[in-house]
Specification:
By secondary structure, this protein is of the alpha+beta class. The protein has 2 domains: 33 residues, no CATH class; 77 residues, 2-Layer Sandwich (Alpha-Beta Plaits), CATH 3.30.70.3270. Helices cover 19% and strands 15% of the residues. It is built from 4 helices and 5 strands. The strands form 2 sheets. It has a 3-stranded antiparallel beta sheet, with no helix packed on it. A two-stranded antiparallel sheet has the order 1-4. The longest helix has 10 residues. It starts with a helix and ends with a strand. The structure holds iron/sulfur cluster (2 copies). The site of one iron/sulfur cluster has 13 residues, from helix 3.
């Protein structure tokens, strides 16, 4: 007689995994074909007001640097853009997603997005830099 644990293990060998390959940004941009064939599990929606990767509206920024003063993780640096205007540069790999910079920005040019797939091989990649 086959022990129940062995039966379970054999069954698992032929069961589709519930998880996806990670990081998912290594999967092609258009995942619809994978979804249609049932090769990947669709992501679940994130919660309302989820604090994911930040977004930055460069043109709206007035360079007041309030965000730099409140950031506890030293994510934000002061920079001057090509037109000589005071702007910021953010190293998202250091961010703790506390949201303090969003709250303090007087012109509301920083936002949280639902994006949570931030795994990367390069800490300085474009995906992890906002400017
Ligand atoms: S969310 Fe918090 S840690 Fe991230 S950049 Fe803003 S203030 Fe800094
Ligand atoms: S608080 Fe807002 S306006 Fe001020 S520097 Fe930061 S992003 Fe720009």
């Amino acid at each position: 007689m086959i022990p129940p644990m062995l039966k379970y293990l054999i069954k698992q060998l032929f069961t589709k995994p519930f998880t996806n390959l990670f990081p998912a940004n290594r999967v092609p941009n258009d995942t619809s074909a994978f979804l249609a064939k049932g090769k990947i599990t669709p992501p679940i929606p994130v919660a309302e007001n989820y604090r994911g990767k930040l977004s930055y509206e460069h043109d709206k920024c007035i360079g007041c640097y309030s965000c730099i003063r409140v950031c506890p993780a030293n994510v934000i640096k002061a920079v001057t853009d090509k037109d000589g205007k005071r702007k910021i540069k953010m190293d998202v790999s250091k961010c703790t997603f506390c949201g303090q910079c969003i709250d303090v920005c007087p012109v509301k040019c920083l936002h949280s997005t639902p994006e949570f797939l931030l795994a990367d091989y390069d800490k300085k990649s474009k995906n992890l830099t906002l400017e």
